[in-house]
Each structure stands twice: as C-alpha cells, then as structure tokens.
Specification:
By secondary structure, this protein is of the alpha+beta class. Helices cover about 60% and strands about 10% of the residues. The protein has a four-stranded antiparallel beta sheet, covered by helices on one side. Helix 10 crosses helix 16. The longest helix has 30 residues. It starts with a helix and ends in a 12-residue tail after the last helix. The structure holds flavin-adenine dinucleotide.
Length: about 550
C-alpha cells in the first residue's frame, strides 16, 4: 500500500494530465473517429511521464506497490476521465494479473519489471468466440513440444475474441488448453503465426482498442507457461477476481458520478416553468438523488472490500462480485438518468452524457456479466445460509442492530430489517426447493447484493460520524449527509427484499394460501413500511446538499 499523500499526488497528476491531454473536445473527436489515442495511453504508462502503471506493480519489481484501496481510487478517477482510455490501462493490469499471482520468480522479475520500466502494454486473452461467460469451453490449445523427453516449448492454436488492447499490446497473456488443463501463456507481439483483426466497431468505449486474436502454430518457449506448471490457469484467473472486479466496480462508480456531475450543474442553469430544474423535486428526486444513493451504497461496499483485501483476507470473489454488480448497475442507471436530466441536450454528442452512457454499458458485461455476478453471489451466500441453518443473515442483521444501538440515525436498523427479511426469504426458498429455478437463484443474488450494500453504507455512515473513516476514502459527503443517504438506500433495499422476495417465492408456488399471513409477518413488513417515514425529508436534504443549499450543522435524525 502507498502513503495517503502519494495517492493524493497520483490522483492530482492524473487529473492534471487528463485536463491537458484529454479535454472534452478531443474525447468527442476520438469517439467519433473510433480511435484509441495510443500516444496518450503510452504516456500514461510511461515511467518518465505519468507512470500510472507503477501503482499496480509491486515495489520489488520497480513499482509503487499500491493496494486494492489505492487501485480503486485510481480506477474511479480514470473512469471519470474516459472509460475507453481507462480500459486500455486496465488491460495491462488484467494481462499481468496471472503473472502477479501465478508466475515463477524469474517470470515475475522479467515481465513486471518490464511493465514498470518500459511501460509495456499488455492484453488479457481469455474470451473466445465459443467461450464467454463459460471459460471452461475454451478451445485454444497449447500442445507441448518435446526434445529428448523434455518439454521445451508449446505450440498455440486458436482464436480469442473482444480482447482489449488486442491490436496495440506489446505482450499478451493467453489462456489455452494444455494436456493438464487451461494454462496462461505469455505471447509477444510479432510472434510468428500470431495475428489480430481490425478493431471492433463498438457501441461505447470507442477510445479502447478491442480486437480478435488468431494463433496459428505460434511457438513459445517453455518459460512462457505462467508458473511453469500446466493446468493452473483457471485457478490463477479465480485468484484475482475479487480484486479485478473491484477495479471494474470503480469504473461503474466513476462513470456514474461523471454523468451526474454534468447533470447537477446543468440543472442549476436550465430554467423551466420559471425556476431552475434543480429546484424541482419531481426532477431531483427521480433523476439525481436515488442514483447518488445507489452509487454511494456501492462505494461503501467497494471500500469495505478493498480494505479487507488489503488486510489479507484473501481474494474475496463474492464481495468483488457484489461490488461490481451494484456499482456497474448503478453507474449505468445514473448515466441513463443523466441523459434524461439534460433533455434534448443530453441526447446530443456535445454534452457528453450520452457518450458516458454508451461507455459505462460495457461494465455490466466485461469481467463477468451482471447475470454471472448474480449467480456467483447467490451460490456462495446460499452455502452460508445452509451452513448456518438459516442464521447467516439474521446474524448480520443482529450486528447492525448493535450498531444502531451505538449510532442511531445511520440506517443500520432499517438495513437490519432488510437482512432479517432476506434470511426468511432464503429459508422459504430452501424449504420449497425454489433454487431449482435458475431465475429465483439469480434474483436472490440481486436481493443479497442490495441488503449487503445497505449494511455496508450504514457502517460507513457510522465510521464517518465517529471520525474513523479510512483517510484515503472519498469524503464528498459529511456524516449527516451520508446518514441520510444510508437511510434512503436502506429503505429501498428493505422494501425490495420483501416485495421482490414475496413475488418470486409466491410466483414459484413456494407458499400455500394458508401459510401466506404467517410468512408475511415473518418478513417484518409493517416495520419496513413504517421505516419509509422520513424518506421525502431525507431526499430533500440530499438535494439541498448536492446543490449547496443545506444548512450546516444538521443533527443526525434518530
Ligand atoms: C469491449 C469489450 C472488451 C472486452 N475485453 C476483454 C478482454 O480484454 N479480455 C477478455 O478475455 N475478454 C474481454 N471481453 C469479453 C467479455 O469478458 C465477455 O464478452 C463477457 O465475459 C461475456 O461473454 P460473452 O460475450 O460470450 O457473452 P455470453 O457468455 O454468451 O452471455 C450472453 C448473455 O447470456 C447471459 N448468460 C451467460 N451464461 C449464462 C448462464 N449460465 N445463465 C444465465 N445467463 C447466462 C450473460 O449474462 C449475457 O447476458 C471484452 C468484451 C467487450 C465487449
């Protein structure tokens, strides 16, 4: 991990760099021309220019050794600038991840040092025409080439699809099947038999080069097998999912806020029906405030997960999936609402929100689609439910009730209601064997993500109130505002868990008429309905905060 001061300096350098090298007009032109600004990407990754890649490389290989929290902050800022350029930089981190987690010491030294010192651009080649979400279906092969009974190299054959930096990278990590299973190989550009297609013509992130790769008898030495042992590829990919999905989560967060930060000032100047749009509750409470609550709930989850990864709790794949799912869905919704918030102007290129909306769309697709995230989340937490005989979420709820006793007004009591209800829904799903319906399994994933993020945001609001927030954390909102945001989000999460949960349980025939009243009571519906009290006042307050109208020193509501 790097020092807070160093992180702040890096963030400032990144902002200054973008201001100079990637002003709006240039981003618009590159987007229209569908062009990757390779010189800018090289300068970002060049150690004698911006050198942003140094943050991700361990110190022993010439980098700065940034941790997950540092990386989240940088990724959010990159996404605020341009998601295509951010993707070009991310591709190097993704491409080098199999090396960071699985390579031999010599391989690490060679490749990570070259990324640090030479600014080598990497690409991460996993997806294939027939293997997207299901990577196990990959067809690219790496056949061992032997001499005197010893494997001296591999011959790679196959195709990769939609590879970021595919046409511009200096080196590629490529997943291919060996006799012992999928394995990562490092292939350098220009290798005989290795070609790439023209860049794809994409909906968004048009500043990122995305290309298909073809391998026809591409020979690599044995030392290009990452880790030197065949069959470790999927494990090596799995080992970093928590971390890499956190980066894409930060992309959703940054892009969502970038859109809102255009809509908010716009609405102070746009006069309709005699007053600025910013003064119209029907506008702010639909198009701005709920998106702020969603983004900040996702941020709270990202920050907790990043802190836990940095504390050595492992790769936290499920938490990475929840963070990615919530932040990227929130980022998409915020960008879409920002187009609406700018009306006809929002629909034109010039105002940038339509570009942000096209760009952020990719974040719910790459590094695992939202549906795959729902499945990952649900399967893992289902096991927790079973292992604890249905107590997992009741226990999480009791922790929040304890937090509420200590710190009232931060939404922990309402988040606890959501978690208790979730535990009841999951138990009913177990008894009626409803997870045999894939749709129910995935919908549970969504409810779990909402309820866990509600808990996270109330914990974050409490940390701010107690002056204990991580000093690197985002401080856009003070304790009072964050508590109001937490209450807004917790109310929504609690209602969603009960309403959607009931819908799917009843919809799948999981409950008889005779059981209905008792089941509804077990969900705590009356308390969840009562907890909606104060919602409009909290939304008014957040609108006032966003537009600089809030009175200072407001107390936390009890
Ligand atoms: C611009 C761009 C950049 C990319 N960069 C890279 C890169 O650098 N490296 C790389 O390796 N890949 C990259 N990808 C590929 C990306 O990771 C995949 O597109 C993604 O994993 C989804 O795979 P797929 O497109 O084959 O969709 P599919 O897996 O075919 O999914 C199609 C739809 O079906 C759903 N679905 C899939 N499986 C299930 C299931 N079991 N149950 C229910 N629903 C399911 C999905 O959620 C999705 O909605 C990139 C893609 C794009 C578009």
């Amino acid at each position: 991990m790097i020092a807070t001061k160093t992180l702040k300096l890096s963030l400032k350098s990144l902002k200054d760099f973008a201001k100079k090298r990637l002003p709006d007009e240039m981003l618009q032109e590159l987007d229209e021309r569908d062009e990757c600004p390779l010189d800018v990407v090289h300068d970002m990754c060049s150690p004698d220019k911006l050198g942003i890649q140094l943050l991700f490389i361990p110190e022993e290989f010439g980098g700065m050794g940034g941790g997950a929290f540092d990386v989240y902050c940088i990724c959010e800022e990159m996404a605020r600038i341009d998601l295509g350029v951010a993707t070009a930089v991310l591709a190097t981190f993704l491409g080098s991840d199999p090396i960071t987690v699985g390579a031999t010491p010599e391989q690490k030294k060679t490749w990570l040092t070259r990324i640090a010192e030479e600014g080598l651009l990497f690409a991460y080649g996993a997806t294939e025409p027939e293997a997207g979400s299901d990577l196990g279906a990959l067809r690219t092969t790496a056949d061992p080439v032997s001499q005197d009974g010893r494997v001296i190299g591999y011959k790679i054959n196959g195709n990769k699809q939609w590879i970021s930096n595919g046409g511009v990278a200096d080196a590629y990590t490529v997943l291919a099947n060996t006799p012992s299973g999928p394995s990562w190989f490092i292939v350098e550009k220009g290798a005989k038999g290795f070609t790439h297609d023209e860049p794809e013509d994409k909906h968004g992130i048009r500043l990122s080069n995305t290309a298909a790769l073809a391998f026809n008898d591409v020979c690599v030495d044995a030392n290009r097998l990452v880790g030197g042992v065949e069959g470790q590829g999927l494990n090596q990919a799995q080992a970093v999912f928590g971390y890499t999905r956190l980066m894409v989560a930060a992309f959703g967060l940054g892009a969502g806020w970038a859109a809102l930060d255009r809509a908010i000032p716009y609405s102070t100047k746009r006069i309709q029906a005699g007053a600025p749009l910013s003064q119209k509750q029907g506008y702010t409470h639909k198009l701005i405030v709920p998106h702020v609550a969603h983004l900040e709930a996702a941020r709270a989850y990202i920050e907790e997960t990043a802190e836990r990864i940095d504390a050595g709790e492992g790769s936290l794949n499920t938490e990475g999936a929840i963070a990615k799912y919530m932040a990227t869905e929130a980022g998409n919704a915020a960008a879409e609402a920002s187009i609406q918030a700018l009306g006809g102007y929002g629909y034109t290129h010039e105002y940038m929100v339509e570009k942000i909306s096209r760009d952020v769309r990719i974040t719910t697709i790459y590094e695992g689609t939202s549906e795959i995230m729902e499945m990952t989340i649900s399967r893992d937490r289902w096991q927790s439910h079973l292992k604890t005989r249905g107590q997992h979420y009741h226990e999480r709820a009791r922790e929040l009730e304890a937090l509420h006793a200590r710190q009232r007004g931060v939404g922990a009591d309402i988040a606890a209601l959501a978690l208790h209800a979730l535990a009841e829904i999951m138990e009913k799903a177990r008894v009626a064997r409803l997870t045999r319906y894939q749709h129910i399994l995935l919908r549970l994933g969504e409810l779990i993500a909402y309820a866990e993020c509600a808990g996270s945001l109330s914990r974050r609001a409490a940390l701010v109130a107690e002056g204990k927030l991580n000093e690197k954390a985002n401080r856009r909102f003070d304790a009072t505002a964050l508590a109001a945001l937490s209450r807004i989000f917790s109310r929504e999460a609690a209602l969603k868990v009960t309403q959607d949960g009931l819908r799917w349980v009843v919809g799948a025939g999981g409950i008889s008429d005779a059981e209905m009243t008792g089941f509804e009571a077990s969900l705590g519906l009356p308390a969840i309905h009562r907890a909606q009290s104060g919602l409009i006042a909290d939304m008014d307050y957040i609108a006032d905060v966003l537009y600089g109208r809030a009175a200072k020193g407001r107390e936390l509501a009890a």
